[in-house]
Specification:
Helices cover 19% and strands 35% of the residues. With 371 residues, the chain is of the alpha+beta class. A hairpin with a 2-residue loop joins strand 6 and strand 7. It holds the Pfam family FecR_C. Keywords: Membrane, Transmembrane, Transmembrane helix. GO terms for molecular function: sigma factor antagonist activity.
């Protein structure tokens, strides 16, 4: 979509005349903006604020303006990618209380490896992942994990990322898995249970899979009350609350979602690229989604569109390893934004504060949500 087309849709959006299809197109365009690598000086930001004040719909008394009006201003001064574009922008930004003194760094490469015999290894944080080859396991740069000159193991193993951690693993069949924060993956050296010709792993939390194609041995991910059956494909599973819902998003290939219902029978659903299955014990909903948004975490971004505050803060809590305490909650507020996961938490919270809906205070590893 060209800049002129975007500006035309923005005008329709602010006038309330956008169709659902045009809204989806506009949101997809926004999520494609590159918000990571543009340096904007305070002088330029102040200039942008002056541009915003002159836009139709700006209210001097409330100093509130719509998200897409802000985007239009950004487009008009050729600054697509400010990265703090949210629904209710306020020109008077109140900085986070004590954001400098108590700032919190983002998550890092952090995980533990637990073996069937109970042995636990804290994986090196300077490495990005591990690789399994038959009964041997090493870091993905070829260096040894074990200090006793052995790199072999047998049976099941579990890799676990804590809050504030992520890690990558290449399984023995060549399948690649990226683990998000607060997640676990249990796997075997052969990825094959005795007497069953399938490759099986068990997941909790969130992970992105690039499954190595093998028609003779389907790949099965067990998560909560369901299994995802694939031959060779790319997909993401979000199962932080498997008792409630499990989200499976397909980027490439075909997957089958098999859910166990309360009555003991199974419900089977096939996904096509660009679709997401939202599964519970009661039902499975299949819908088209913005795959880039669902996979933003893997690409090093925190992104959200029309999300409630709790959903956003859950993402922040897992990645920055913090506890969120709600002294106030804006029930009707919806948030849209994008920022790098490499930023300190103060920058992420400042982005949310620009809405004027909430303020934050950092106390050690606690974040207080205030009015």
């Amino acid at each position: 979509m060209t800049t002129e087309e975007a500006k035309r849709l923005i005008s329709k959006y602010n006038a309330g005349n956008c169709t659902d299809q045009e809204k989806a197109l506009l949101e997809n365009w926004y999520m494609q903006l590159d918000v990571q690598h543009i340096n904007i000086s305070p002088k330029t930001i102040e200039s942008l604020r002056e541009e915003i004040k002159n836009l139709p719909g700006f209210n001097d008394k409330s100093k509130t303006i719509k998200l897409w009006s802000v985007i239009a201003a950004v487009v008009s001064v050729s600054l697509i990618a400010v990265g703090v574009l949210l629904f209710n922008y306020r020109s008077e930004i109140r900085p986070i209380t004590n954001q400098i003194a108590n700032d919190i760094a983002p998550g890092t490469n952090k995980a533990t490896l637990t073996f069937a015999n109970g042995k636990i290894i804290n994986l090196n944080q300077t490495k990005t992942g591990i690789a399994v080859d038959a009964a041997k396991i090493k870091y993905n740069d070829g260096t040894k994990i074990f200090s006793n000159n052995t790199d072999s193991f047998s049976g099941l193993a579990t890799i676990t990322t804590p809050k504030g951690g992520e890690y990558h693993i290449v399984l023995s069949d060549g399948t690649k898995v990226w683990l998000n924060a607060a997640s676990t993956l249990t796997f075997a050296t052969s990825l094959r249970e005795r007497g069953e010709d399938k490759r099986r792993v068990t997941l909790s939390g969130e992970a992105y899979f690039e499954v190595f194609k093998d028609k003779r041995r389907p790949f099965v991910v067990k998560v909560g009350h369901q299994e995802i059956l694939v031959l060779g494909t790319h997909f993401n599973i979000n199962a932080y609350d498997p008792k409630a819902v499990i989200k499976t998003t397909l980027q490439e290939g075909v997957v089958r979602v098999i859910s166990l219902k309360k009555d003991g029978t199974f419900r089977k659903s096939n996904l096509k690229p660009g679709e997401q299955a939202i599964s519970s014990e009661a039902a499975t909903l299949i819908k088209k989604v913005n795959v880039e948004l669902e996979l933003a975490w893997k690409k090093g971004k925190i992104q959200f569109v029309r999300a409630d505050l709790k959903s956003v803060m859950n993402m922040i809590s897992r990645w920055y390893d913090i506890e969120v305490i709600y002294q106030y909650y804006p029930n009707e507020a919806k948030f849209t934004g994008s920022i790098s996961r490499s930023k300190n938490i103060s920058e992420v919270l400042s982005l949310l504060e620009t809405t004027g809906e909430v303020r934050f205070k950092i106390e050690e590893r606690k974040v207080l949500v205030m009015k």
